Request: fold
Amino acid sequence: MSSDPRYPVGKFTPDYNVTPEKRAQWIQQIGDFPREFKATVDALPGGALDRPYREGGWTGRQVVHHVADSHINAYVRFRLAVTENEPRIKTYEESLWAELVDAKTADPALSLTLLEALHKRWHMFLTSLGPADFART
Reply:
């Protein structure tokens, strides 16, 4: 765990030693994620969705919608990587997306349902790829 409240589970550290076994495990995590995330959201105490998780941070509701936004972007980036030669990875202003009305007020069930469908497609897509697809630039 991190002592920086902006990164409660720590900053991402990439693993450059990718093996077929690790890749299969990561792809399975993508398949399992929606169920696990929904269980975590469902277990939140009353009112947690509308409270920031840290001072100056997003509410639980914004975090749920951010995860959907982030995973949509990641899914599209994977598809671009397989279908285009050296695609540019476009960033997005996560903090501004989190301030949009849907991120601040929509029922989290919308994003949880979206994640379930998205991850089914993402998992199917990733399991269809071969080593050459993962070696693309």
